[in-house]
Amino acid sequence: MNYFKSRQIVISRARRDAQLYLAGGVALCLLMALAHSAAADQQAIYPPSAMPRVDMHTHMDAKTQYAKSVEAMDQWGGTISISLAGLFWVKDNDDKNASPASVRQIPSNDMIYVKDKLQNRILFVPGAFTIPSQGIWWSVDEIKTFKEQGFVGLKLWPHGAILSSKIPKIHEQLDEAGRLGMPLIGYHAGDPGDAKGNSAAFPKFEEDAIEIAKAHPKTTFIFAHGLFMLENDEGLDKLGKIFDQYPNVFVDLAFTHNARQAAKYTPSKARAFYIKHRDRILFGSDVFAAGAPASGFLNERKVLETNQVTNGLHGGPKLEGLNLPADVLNHIYYWNAARLIPRVRQVLEAQKFKIGYELGLFKFDRLPPDVTVNKLTVVRGQAAELTGTLGSVTESLTVEIAGKIYSGVDNLNGTWKLSADQLVNLPAGVYDVKVTTKNAIGLVRTDSSTNELIVR
């Protein structure tokens, strides 16, 4: 049976038990208390309002599916779904069935629909297979366009028996993704093939994928399916060492709990791993065509949030749940997504979720520090602070006005300022304020507005 089709069948067979978990109006404070002092048979699942949940890995390629997805999210407690869009399944390596056409219509069609009708609760990543003879569909210039259009990252699946390192022009494209703060979301290192493991058609190339991440330290990689290393104890050890060596490597949980190898998997060890590496793991479902009912997602929540014996979203082996602490769940469900993808943070804040500027120990070092300048009109000789916003913590911040460069101040709360006395000697006129920011790993960003300062 086709591997991907089998996923959809498993999803459709998920037990419909959503009412069991949605019934009742237990107060949030009581549930939080249960989460910290629960007995061994704890059954509590957080209500949808308790914390947002970002699904980093879905596949929806038709506008008719988006409303269905949001309706399902409202039932199981989801907040944002990221669609790895534009994926036409390629049957072979001769590119006869390959087409990036769906990516082209998303900005002028799907994004507008989602914004107007669904409060931006679906975000998009332009997906691409690779064709050995041609490389990647999108070019370096297209990556810049994708960011301007509102795509939140890049999806890449090296198709078939091809190493990432051998893809034509991949290195210049990954460098550009890093410069623009466009993470590789759902990056595949091959695929598991079938239920029995690896296959000749879709071999796994985790080692080569890590070499790619090593070669591009300023580019963020969110590897799909836990890099196929969350399935057993040996894989957990291997992934832990990768996390220790490469700070630009992250993983999503899509389909991983279905693939756990019960005889080689220790839930207590997995729980300790998730707690230790909470900054590097992101929630994902791998749901196709909005096809999973709320009950399937609630089963997946049981794996993460309780110690019940359960099988997760895709009907995997029944094992004891991980019963993760609330702060770990925050990281996995949304903090890490908000750190790595500015648009996620903006949508969550628009939904009235308060996102801390420095989330945990993570200071947004993976992103170029987005910067804006607040327009200011001031009387000549008058002291006034020039201010603006920042999307991440900076290592340095300079302000250039009329050819003179000043040192700005990062207030460490999402804003910056130039001290009031710096403007008093400027003659009357209209000035362009150029703010340049750099973060700890050397990524640079300059504001895009002009003529922000008027001196009368």
Question: The biggest beta sheet, please?
Answer: 6 strands, mixed
The gyration radius over C-alpha positions equals: 23 Å
pLDDT < 50 runs, ≥5 residues: 1-43, 87-95
Number of helices: 13
Structural summary, described in words:
The structure is a single chain. The protein is of the alpha/beta class. The chain folds into two domains: 3-350, Alpha-Beta Barrel (TIM Barrel); 376-455, Immunoglobulins (Immunoglobulin-like, Sandwich), CATH 2.60.40. Helix content is 32%, strand content 19%. It is built from 13 helices and 22 strands. Strands 1, 2, 3, 4, 5 and 10 form a six-stranded mixed sheet that branches. Helix 4 packs across helix 11 and helix 6 (140-149) packs parallel to helix 7.
Topology:
Blueprint: H1 3-12, H2 18-22, H3 28-37, E1 54-59, H4 66-76, E2 80-85, H5 101-118, E3 122-131, E4 135-136, H6 140-149, E5 155-158, H7 170-180, E6 184-187, H8 206-215, E7 221-223, H9 233-245, E8 249-252, H10 267-276, E9 281-282, E10 287-288, H11 294-305, E11 309-310, E12 319-320, H12 326-340, H13 342-350, E13 376-378, E14 386-389, E15 396-401, E16 404-407, E17 409-410, E18 415-418, E19 429-431, E20 433-438, E21 444-446, E22 453-455
Parallel strand pairs: 1-2, 1-10, 2-3, 3-5, 6-7, 7-8, 8-9, 13-22
Antiparallel strand pairs: 3-4, 11-12, 14-18, 15-16, 15-20, 17-18, 19-22, 20-21
